[in-house]
Amino acid sequence: MSNTVKIPQLSALNLAPMRQGQNAKQAIDAMVRLAKHLERLDFTRFWIAEHHNMPHLASSATQILIAHTLSHTQKIRVGSGGVMLPNHSPLQVAEQYGTLATLYPNRVDLGLGRAPGTDQMTAMALRRGHRDVSMHFADDVIELQRYFGDENQQGYVKAYPALGLNVPLYILGSSTESAYLAGRLGLPYAFASHFAPRMLDMAVDIYRNEFKPSAVLNEPYMMICNNILVADSDDEAKFLATTQQQLFWDLVRGVSRGMCPPVPDMDALWSPQEKLSAQAMMSTSLIGDKDSVKQQLIDFQQKYGADELIAINYIFDEQKQHHAYSLLKQIIETI
Asked: Residue 127 has what pLDDT?
């Protein structure tokens, strides 16, 4: 099968979510335990997402969590999935991630997103009332590249200690706009199909068609983030997946309860319209036992040929979550 299906690199995304009954410190501790487990499984990278004004996510100060995770691991790459660039000046981002890369050489990734990662009122609070600067995303990415570049690329303002470190940049997207930019700049592109799968097909095609070789890449490097949940049986996987379904149900309703225990019947909770809306955001999810997810993954790769899969799952039981990633690694090794 490996002759017909691209074997992707395997990585993971985490939002430091609070399980029901947990506080932020407990959620961060669980995040670190997961990172250490994934390092033992030889995952390529562990990314942490930036979110704001979300009471059950502890990932607002992303760069601090990245430093904390780096300090508790030895080799796995750790980075932002991503820094929501409209919330930050490129100079500050370069200084912060240049410092991280100085402390932890060759282990820091900088994923960059165009959206604020929050609601508009919170976005304005982050910018201290400044206008929306998301339309300057492309210029900000180029400015970041300069700050991490060599001395001869610099202007008067320089980012220390970022200068010359060439911290790897990744363009993140949940629509097609960033696909054009990533292709034009010749940068790796990560698509967020774990919550916004509707434009996945278009974004993949656009990125590959628009790609221009750069000093970073000779050919496209397509990364796809997806919900992947593997259990010892299909029935158990479907049961465990109701935690994820409740999270998306809450998102549809504008409610925040954190990660809730699985339930035997989601149809007893959500309305048909809520179910339809939530399932639309989870339509590319891979859920089942090892044999089932292996076939789903083969089908997925035959369609998209991702160079790297960034897996995320929401499993309430921490040990079962770790086990799910172990099973996923076993699947990759047998394709």
From this structure: 58
User: Read out DSSP for 150-190?
Assistant: -GGG--SS--TTTTT----EEEEESSSHHHHHHHHHT--EE
- Contact predicate 258/17, CB 8 Å: yes
Amino acid (one-letter) located at 49: A
Cβ-count burial 182-198 (b if 16+ within 10 Å, e if not): bbebbbbbbbbbbbbbe
- Enumerate the β-bridge partners of residue 137: none
Q: What is the pLDDT of residue 121?
A: 67
Determine the average pLDDT of the residues in 216-228.
98
Residue 132 has pLDDT above 70, yes or no: no
Q: For the chain, which domains are there? A: 9-235+285-334 (3.20.20.30)
10 bridge partner residues: 309
> Which single residue is written with the structure tokens 């919550």?
195
Taking the model in full, what pTM does it have? 0.94
- Tell me what the mean pLDDT of segment 180-190 comes to: 98
